[in-house]
UniProtKB/TrEMBL annotation:
Keyword entries, A-Z: Dioxygenase, Lyase, Oxidoreductase
GO terms for MF: dioxygenase activity; lyase activity
Naturally occurring in which organism (per UniProt): Microbacterium thalassium
Gene3D superfamilies associated with the record: 2,3-Dihydroxybiphenyl 1,2-Dioxygenase, domain 1 (3.10.180.10)
Domain VOC, first and last residues per copy: 8-122, 140-258
Record-given protein name: Catechol 2,3-dioxygenase-like lactoylglutathione lyase family enzyme
PROSITE patterns: VOC
Lineage: Bacteria, Bacillati, Actinomycetota, Actinomycetes, Micrococcales
CDD domains per UniProt: BphC5-RrK37_N_like
Pfam families according to UniProt: Glyoxalase (PF00903)
Coiled coil region boundaries: none
Length: 311
């Protein structure tokens, strides 16, 4: 198998109009740690991750600012930049020293729908600690899911330009695709793309230590007053647990655990019919998926497409 140049998912950066409320929710309830703050910007880390931060919040009109990925060294980073230039991908900026919190060396591009992606290496890491038994806080950022009005074109962009692979897909009974789960390493998915009425954030997913911590975390968030929109249950694609909530800004956020790690040499993608209960929830413990539940994660139209964030 040819080596991929994108190593792993690092962080997501969101702009939110209720910045202080959102920061309070993620630090006091969701379980992230603020490690750096500037005027109107907060950098939040997961205690179990060596990433300097896994979520950046910025005070502004609601949008996805960017999603960051790691690359293993400057040689790979330059090779990726050269590849994307050859393929006509639109750059936000060329490889350079990064001046934001955590530093590093990297570049940014627009994906096919206009979302900003950052690729970096050589950034500062933090000392992770082992999440304690029954401690209901995230260990790391698991995956990011986008809504796209051009599902297959969006997924193909990640396959063609970033060498992502489709691990599994959700389909309608007539065979039409509804969602693609995509990987850049043996983890079942770091990015997924869902069919939606417009381009927007579908959800951010945060990995918990295990089932016990995931359940305790879900209970903790329910007691915070946040609304669970789907769960608790266990997906088929990825075999991971799920509990989806709405943040104060109206973004869908998930506690998950036990996402599959694949034997990539022998893995064959599945096409899972969404009309079958086990395709969405193996346990059958969550509400049946419906248009009403799906609509909760359509989110607001992303107004940041093909517009570079100011930070």
């Amino acid at each position: 198998m040819t080596k991929r140049l994108v190593a792993h998912l690092r962080y997501a950066a969101l702009a939110v109009p209720n910045f202080e409320e959102e920061r309070d929710f993620f630090t006091n309830y969701w379980g992230l740690t603020e490690v750096h703050a500037e005027e109107g910007v907060s950098y939040l880390a997961a205690e179990g991750s060596t990433e300097p931060f896994i979520l950046r919040l910025r005070d502004d009109e609601k949008r996805i600012d960017l999603v960051g990925f790691a690359v293993d060294g400057r040689d790979d980073l330059q090779a990726l930049a050269d590849k994307l230039h050859t393929e006509g991908v639109q750059f936000v900026h060329e490889p350079q020293e990064l001046t934001g919190f955590g530093g590093g060396y990297g570049f940014r591009v627009f994906d096919g729908d206009g979302r900003v992606l950052e690729f970096s290496t050589g950034y500062q890491t933090r000392t992770a600690r082992k999440i304690r038994e029954r401690e209901p806080i995230p260990a790391k950022l698991s995956h990011v899911v986008f809504n796209s009005a051009n599902l297959n074109d969006t997924a193909q962009w990640y396959v063609d330009h970033l060498d992502f692979s489709i691990s599994d897909s959700l389909i309608r009974p007539d065979g039409g695709e509804m969602m693609h789960f995509m990987r850049c390493n043996p983890n079942h998915h770091s990015v997924a793309v869902a069919m939606g009425p417009h381009h927007s954030l579908h959800h951010l997913s945060f990995e918990m230590r295990g089932i016990e911590e995931w359940m305790r975390g879900a209970g903790k968030i329910l007691r915070s007053g946040a609304r669970m929109i789907w769960g608790p249950g266990r997906h088929n694609a990825g075999d991971n647990t799920f509990a989806y909530f709405l943040s104060p800004a109206g973004n869908t956020i998930e506690y998950t655990t036990e996402l599959s790690v694949l034997d990539e040499e022998n893995w064959e993608p599945h096409r899972l019919d969404i009309s079958q209960l086990s395709s969405q929830d193996q346990w059958g413990t969550a509400q049946a998926m419906s248009e009403i539940i799906a609509r909760e994660s359509f989110n607001d139209i992303d107004k940041g497409l093909f517009v570079a964030p100011p930070a």
